[in-house]
Structures are given as C-alpha cells and as structure tokens.
Fold these 2 entries.
Entry 1:
Amino acid sequence: MNVVLTFVSILVCGLIVVAVPSMVTPYVAEYGPVTVFDTSKAILLCAALASLAGLFAYRQSTGAFLLKLFISALLIRMILGTIIFVSNGQNFFGGDAITYDFYGNAQLMGWYGDRYAQSVADIYVRSWSAAGWGMVYMVAGVYGIIGRNLLAVQFVNAVFGAATAVVVYLCAHHVYSNLRVARLAGIAAAFYPSLVLWSSQGLKDGPIVFFLAISMLATLRLGEKLSFKYIVVLVCSLLAVLSFRFYVFYMICFAVGGAFVIGTQKLTTNSFFRQLSAIAILGLALTYLGVTRSATVQFERFGNLEAVQRSRDDAARSAESGFGREVDVSTTTGALTAIPIGLVYLLFAPFPWQLVSLRQSLTLPEMIIWWASFPMLVLGLWFSFRYRLRLISPILIFTLMLSLAYSVFQGNVGTAYRQRAQLLVFYFIFVAVGYVLMLEKREERKRAILAARQSVVAPGVASTLGRSRELHQ
C-alpha cells in the first residue's frame, strides 16, 4: 500500500507539472500564461504543507493508518482540483474562487504599496466587518510566496480538506475510544463527495471546516488536561474561523464555553479549576486580540432578524433553487416557524424532484448515501446522549446551534447543500457510532445463534459418545 501511494503521488504530481500548462492554454485570458514553473511552484507549496500535516498524522498512535488516509484524501482532492482548473470549471462549481483570486491579488498589491489596489481590496475586506476577509488574506499570502497562482490556492485547500479527516478521526477516538468509530468517521470525512468538492477549489469552505474541527479537538484535549499548547491552538483556530465566517465563530465560541462550563470529565476540584482557568485564559486572549470590538460592529450590522430576513429573501428569490419565498423570519415567531422546513432542506436537500440541471443531478449519488445514513445518525446521537454526553457536549452544542441557525436564514437549496459541509464532518462521527452499534448487534446475534447451535449439538455428541463406550464395554 505504501509503495502504491508513493507511486501514485509521484505520477500525479509529475503529470500536473508537465501536462497542465498546455491544457489551460485556451483559458489564458482567465488565468494568464501558465508555465511548468508555475505548476512546479504549486506542487512544491502543496508538498511543503502536506509534509507538516503528514508528520502530525504519523506521530499519532495510529500514525500509519492516518498517514495513508491523509495522502489518499489529498491525492483525490488534487486530481479533482486539477480537473476543475484545466476545464475552467470555477464558475460551474464555485464562482467565489474567482472573487477571492481577484481581491486576493488586489490585497497583495495593496501590501506592496498600491493605494488603488488597496482601495479595491477594502471594498471586500472592509476592516474586519465582512465575512470571508480571511480567505482574501490567505490568497494574498499564497500569491506573495509564489506569485499569482489559482492552482496553488486549490492545492492549499486540498491539504486543509485532507487534514480535516485526520482531525475528525482524532476527535471521534478521543470521545469514544473505539478504533472502528474513529476510522469510519475519518474515512467519511476524507472521501465524501461534497467534502472533496468544496475543499478542491479556491473556496473558503475547506479552511472553515478544518479550523472548526481543530477547535473541537483542542477543546476536547483541554477538557482532559490544561495545556498551553492547546490554548494557543484553540485561540488561533477560533480567530481563523472568525476571519472566514464570523457568525460561525460566535457559535463555536458558545459551544466551547458551554463545554468548559458543563465539563467533559467528571466534576472534581481539579477539573473545576482547569475549566475555569481555560475559560479565563481564552476570554482574556480573545479580548486582547480585539474580538469583542469587532463583535460589536458585526452585531450592529448583521445581528438582527431584519438583516437575516433580507439575506434570506435575496437567496430565496435570486435563484431557481430558492425555497420558502413566503417565509418571513424578521420576527421571533416567524423565525421559529421557519425552523422545521429549513431543517428539512438543510439536512436532506436537494430532493430528486429538484434535480433540474446537470450540476444538481451530480449530487444524487451522494444524497442517496446520506439519506441511507440518517437512521445511523439518529442511533449514534441517542447513544451519545445516553453514554457520552459530557465528552461530546462541544460537538453537540455546535452542531445543534449551527443547524438551527442555517435552518432559519437559508433560503436556497444550493447554498444549504454547500454549507451543510460545515456540519457533515461532525454528523459523520455520530453516523459512525450508529453503524458500529449496528455491526456489534449483528455480531452479538451471530454469536448467540452459534452458541445456541453448539448447545444443541453438544448433548447429541455426548449421547453418541456414551453409546460408543457401552458398545466397547
């Protein structure tokens, strides 16, 4: 397996370096000239980041498995990302990539002293008050290192997506101490089609999901032992989430704070002071970094139901896949009544009767898998509530809050499908738990049947042996 992965990695990287420049020649107006030097730089940057992530994966207790999982997930994302790049498919799969490329390049020129370019970048960034400014900075940082190179941004996101599978594995194993559960959750996060798709492009979805998973892992580890390392990791990952999607930041902060208040371990004097210290340090760090100031600005602009209604109504009416156009969430009553239908769309859309285009039809195979997995999700949630409530509390609080929030202000099937990726990696942990419970029940049933058969056969064998002894006597 190691030899195969090494060979495939070298082959894929070599083909990308050599073949991509000639394949994108028809799109020189969109990308500019792309040379072998450009593709080589994209591969080298990807390899450098992948080496760090791979080293982290390999140093875990099941490092050999996690390294194979990471490399396999990365290769799939690199291949898909390259296909999208050479076919100029950004507008078809995710047009935001073009936006981030444009404003990221403008931001880089602004850092170099171009005032006009900085003013263009500020239209999007707007001094910490816009969602997604972190993606503009990330793209600008990549371009500052190797030059304007959209393929490199896609490969950086591919590393984030592949590393997310490793982090999800570690979260699942920390909570349930079960290798089956952890492996299934990690494999699902690595290879589920929509997660692969969103982290293969120059979109912010890949980094968002990665930093959410890192935040959860750091919270779980801090619930077990107070560690300066994980405090730093948690603060940095929370700030990263803030830079990519600010409203998700407040939900993850609430989940982290709630987990520390509840406690992921049995309450003792030591655990109480550990949790109190973690909350105090985290709060002081975020306050020092100016998060409370930016939070005030963002809540004034976006933190009311009228703003949510405007955003939702625009999403519902501006595309063919809009739903609930008559819903009004500008009041508390309206928001509450919108939750049931919004939750159904968030969890299960797109439905078969909504597949009216090629892009929507491509989602059908994975939706069938997801619909079939839902009973296992319910079973896994039931088990977690009953036996792992304290340990799983940060993930439960976050997924519940974000699911309810998206069910209120999402009015478009396509957007709901895309943003479900932020929840899927955590849903898959519960799906894995439910699947393992079903397997164990089936195995117990087989053992019971086998034991029953042996109990029937044993007396017969004993009587036969008894008659044989009598004949010999």
Entry 2:
Amino acid sequence: MSSKPVATADEAAYRPAVGIMLLNSANLVFVARRLDMVSEAWQMPQGGIDKGEAPRDAALRELKEEIGTDKATIIAESRGWLRYDLPAELAAEAWGGRYRGQRQKWFALRFTGNDADIDLATEHPEFSDWKWVRAETLPEFIIPFKRQLYLDVLAEFAPLLRRRPGSGEQSVPG
C-alpha cells in the first residue's frame, strides 16, 4: 500500500507534520534512534506543525529542536502530503488519542555543517544516537508502520540522490 496524499475528508484524523531528509555532502541520509521506543527505532527528523506555521518553517524549526543544528538548506519539497497510520496500540496513546497517524509535508535539506554541529542533547531530547546511511538502506532501519512512507519519500527525492551534491543544486525559494 502506498502512502497517498491525504483526502480532505480524512485530514482531521491525521496530525499535520513535516519530515526532513537531511543529506550530507556524500548524499548520505541522516537517521537517529528514538529514545522513547523499546525496540530499536530509527527515523529521519520529523515533527508537528504549530498552528499558523508554514511547513517549511516547521521543518527548519524541527531540525534545530531535534538534532541541535540549523546548518542546512532546503533543496526540495514533496509535491503533496504523505501519511502513515500508527498501530492501534500507539494511536490510543500518542497525541492524546486524537489522531490515527500523521500527514506530512517532506523536505530534502542539504547539511551545510560538520558532524560536530549535530547535538542530540537538545532541550527535549528525542534521540539517543545518530548516523549517516546510504539511501537504499534506509528502509532497513525504519519501524514497519513507517516503511512505506519512507519508500515513497525515497522515490520522490530519487533525482536528488542520484545527483552529485553541488552540481547545479539550488535551494527552494521561500
């Protein structure tokens, strides 16, 4: 099943959020291990959109809040919104049980800093560890209920992943 753009009637059942595919100079993808999961759960940075906040602003804010850096430039934005459903046992607990899952606008960002600029010891830590991985191995690290979403994000951003960083790459205007 593909994670499809959200139909308007379904919209209220999904928490509005952003996802961030952070790419380093070697086109490796940033993933981090969640602190709040019993199993080993890795993911790309993501988070909710505050009321009145533009998705691109939310992406940059979430990057800083989750991994302690703002050293990145937006290079692409997903065409539409993608979503995932939480397993029933998590949906009952997450976000006060108000949502079935998240609908996300995804952004590809080019990391412009050094690894030392990444600091998981943020005000409200979400991750215990991080690493750079090859894009094609990303689905191996992701918890099953988000796997299809990640495959869809990889497919949409595939042209960026094939391109040599800096070869005609331009940031997306705001």
